[in-house]
Amino acid sequence: MSQWISPDQIRARFAGAMSAMYRREVPQYGALIELVEEVNRDTLAADEALAAGLASAGGLHRLAVERHGAIRVGTPDELAMLRRLFAVMGMYPVGYYDLAPAGVPVHSTAFRPVADDALQKNPFRVFTSLLRPELIASDALRQQALALLDARDIFTPGVKTLIERCEVRGGLDDADADAFVAEALETFRWHSDATVDKPTYDALSAEHPLIADVVCFRGPHINHLTPRTLDIDEVQRRMPERGITPKALIEGPPPRRCPLLLRQTSFKALNEPVRFGAAAGSHTARFGEIEQRGAALTAKGRALYDRLLAEVKAQPQTSDNATHQARLTKAFAAFPDDEAALRRQGLAFFHYRVADADRRSRQRPAEAPGEAHIEALIADGALAATPMVYEDFLPVSAAGIFQSNLSADSPSVDESARRPGNHTRDSQTAFEAALGREVIDEIALYAQRERASLEAALEALKAR
Ligand code: OOG
Ligand code: NI
């Protein structure tokens, strides 16, 4: 037995500690968790097939612990150290999101587990944004922001020692793992005392509220922690009963029989009291969010999703969710809504497993597992295919979430630029240079996991 605690276990401990901390800091988060648990219970009670499917795939445990959070950092060094910190917990940078076209001066990745079994144990992910100071228009303010960032250290000496120890030794023992979790948590804690005076905060905030949020504090406080629901429309409906006011629109695709990608809604952060030296003030940073996850789409499926979403976004804006969802539903009539069609048309990624090994005998073994052979195995009940969960984020939705949580006078979104994937190679290269490695291509990762599951299932059928 290894003396090291597995990265999956460290991640589970950390996610649990983070959730407990955020519950203490933001009572509304606790109320939201209770609401989501209630709706998930009701949804499972009303849908036996869904409950059975989740239970058989081990998804009930995953659902209960599943959260994502978000932070924003200011410098390449901070981002690079975060990469090392997350690696201790088996979390790697997947995907690149450029939010600048949407009027948000950051670009981002998501640190998350990548392997099937790691995702199953605890899929905790952190959407991590890096400020782009070059987008600060005023020279003087940019210099001031850079000086403030340069003067701070968002990591405790203890966490840096433990990260290094983990890298050198190849793991952390039980006591070190607990110490790591406690020390790492310090980076994500809220600080109610700003590092600047009120005029400086106001000047940075006038440039963009996000710049003030990143630059004026001792650390990159976790700004939301999101549980996963099985019925986001129902949670949105019940939020006001709990004294929570959701943002107007649910972001992402419409409700579907076979859920696609990611649907999200958030509630606006409270204005929190902050000390600026001797002066009292406030800051709006932390909010709540819920998400419903559906199938990961192939490049072909994603292109169709982007096109249909763009059709809806091109219509005159509405702040009425029922109208918005009706428009989405109409546009997405062009997107097949049954699993077999999604699979056969190559629109979504699937996970393959042996359903009934005894049925294999009716099939002639194929040299190369061609499409017809796989279809026959599925039709015969030997092989089962289930849609893979989308583990990532959506840039248009993320922009909507950012915008809804900034103060009303923040710079407006340039709708024409709100096209996903509308980023230059150059900005991704700059982000990766700051990060200290390339980000993992999420589409390639899904494709590789799909292929591996199919190969393993065919192998198991052959071996019988
Ligand atoms: C991140 C917003 C993006 C999501 O779920 O799309 C995000 C932030 O506000 O820092 O969390
Ligand atoms: Ni989020």
What does the model show?
By secondary structure, the protein is α+β, with helices and mostly antiparallel strands. It has a single domain, classed as Uncharacterised protein PF07063, DUF1338 (2,3-Dihydroxybiphenyl 1,2-Dioxygenase, domain 1, Roll), CATH 3.10.180. It has helices spanning 7-25, 27-46, 48-56, 59-65, 76-88, 116-121, 139-150, 157-169, 174-188, 198-207, 209-215, 232-238, 299-313, 321-331, 339-344, 371-379, 395-404, 425-435, 442-463; strands spanning 67-73, 92-98, 106-112, 125-131, 224-227, 262-267, 271-276, 279-284, 288-293, 350-354, 383-387. The strands form 4 sheets. The chain has a 5-stranded mixed beta sheet. Strands 6-9 form a two-stranded antiparallel ribbon. The chain is globular and about 75 Å long. The two termini are 31 Å apart. Nickel (II) ion binds next to strand 1 and strand 5. Residues 415-426 have a biased composition (Basic and acidic residues). Its cofactor is Fe(2+). It comes from Halomonas cibimaris.
Which features characterize this protein?
48% helix; two-stranded antiparallel sheet; oxidoreductase; 19 helices; five-stranded mixed beta sheet; binds 2-oxoadipic acid; iron; globular; dioxygenase; 14% strand; 11 strands; 2-oxoadipate dioxygenase/decarboxylase; 464 residues
Sheet with the most strands, sense and barrel status: 5 strands, mixed
Q: Give the CATH H-level superfamily.
A: Uncharacterised protein PF07063, DUF1338
Helix content: 40-55%
Count of domain modules: 1
C-alpha end-to-end distance: 31 Å
Task: Output the helix-strand order.
Answer: HHHHEHEEHEHHHHHEHEEEEHHHEHEHHH
Helix/sheet category:
alpha+beta
CATH class: Alpha Beta
Structural Rg = 23 Å
Strand order of the largest sheet: 2-3-4-1-5
Bound molecules: 2-oxoadipic acid, nickel (II) ion
Q: What percent strand? A: 5-15%
**Given the C-alpha coordinates, what overall shape results?**
globular
Nearest-integer average pLDDT: 90
Number of discrete helical segments:
19
How is the CATH topology named? 2,3-Dihydroxybiphenyl 1,2-Dioxygenase, domain 1
Number of strands: 11
Q: Could you list the spans in which at least 5 consecutive residues all have pLDDT below 50?
A: 408-422
